[in-house]
Amino acid sequence: MLTGEEIISKLRRRWITFYMAFRYGRWSLRRLVYGCTFFFCTTFTLYYLFFVLEMIPWNPAVDHWCQREKAPDYILQPEADEMTVVTMFLDLGVFKKGEQRFAYHSPYKYRKWMRVFGRLANRVVAYIESDDDIQFFREIRSCLPATLTKIIKVDRDNLSSFKHLPKISRIYSRPSYPKYHPNTVYPEYTCAMHAKYDVLERSASEDYFQTPYFAWLDVGLFRNLDGTDFPIFKMVPPDKFHPERIGFSQVWPQDPVRIPELIMKEKIVWVAGSMVLATQEYMLNFTRDYKLAVKELLDQGLSNSDQEVINAMYTAKMRKPHYIKIKTYLCHQGQLGLYGPDARYFCLGYVCKNAWEKRVPQPAPVIRS
């Protein structure tokens, strides 16, 4: 019968043997644990980089759909209410989009969404910064007639909105200024949102395709179509769109008595900046008013994205008598296949797409005897 001291001594020896084997053994448990930990950490990191952040060093594959199908002739003909679609791509790197832990956007993600423009039959003016992205966008549009696309190389430093970068940086660097990713954290992102109206003004002024309507279209507005088998489509103004209005998607109801400072600092949104629609004259007037409003707010030490600026513009305190009236479009959950925030932020784009689809000739029904 072992005494208590002998039992303790035996357990101590076994512990020392186990510990020495774990720490110094050639194929020790310690090395096994460390090896497994390293493997799982490496796997998670690679998964996060490639599938969450999508930090992929090559461009996504482009669907050359014209090799197996032909665009119908009617969709390539100009309409009486033809719309020039204006878009832009500036590589801002990887940035946090929203307050969720893994909410990041990468250039690869935007290039994936960009592929939808390969089946958009509107006249498109694209402002792009790098030669590689210009070539990529040209490949995306290669199945459509070259006359439908104009690509303009831009330098962000020459865009008037980026002249505000130092002032915006100073505002966001104040510890007391509210931080929302990316709106009030990345000054370059804010400048890029304002730059939409720089290129809209330029496009409406130059009128490259001689169309009555102009529309800004975010690269990611039709992101839900990417990777699906959707047909070639077009966008036209909604039915009964007033030519003296400017169209937006409505995100939330507007409260015109709110003060601009509250809107800018609390990220209060009325309309979405994903799509802007107007005739040439009214687009020119709106973009000029917008740029003056940005300067007015910056002089007050206030900055945020274009959505907050537009909300502030149309408050009782900032609104000018000559401002163009805004026509908002609100989609309900499930309408036009939109759910969640997409129903609010992307509504106008899908309404314009649906307005065209209602004009598309439908095949005659098959009558069975």
UniProtKB/TrEMBL annotation:
Positions of transmembrane segments: 32-53
Keyword list, A-Z: Membrane, Transmembrane, Transmembrane helix
Domain of life per record: Eukaryota
InterPro entries attached to this UniProt entry: WlaTC/HtrL_glycosyltransf
Pfam families, per database record: HtrL_YibB (PF09612)
Keyword Membrane attached: yes
Membrane is among the record's keywords: yes
Protein name (Swiss-Prot/TrEMBL): Glycosyltransferase family 92 protein
Taxonomic source organism: Plakobranchus ocellatus
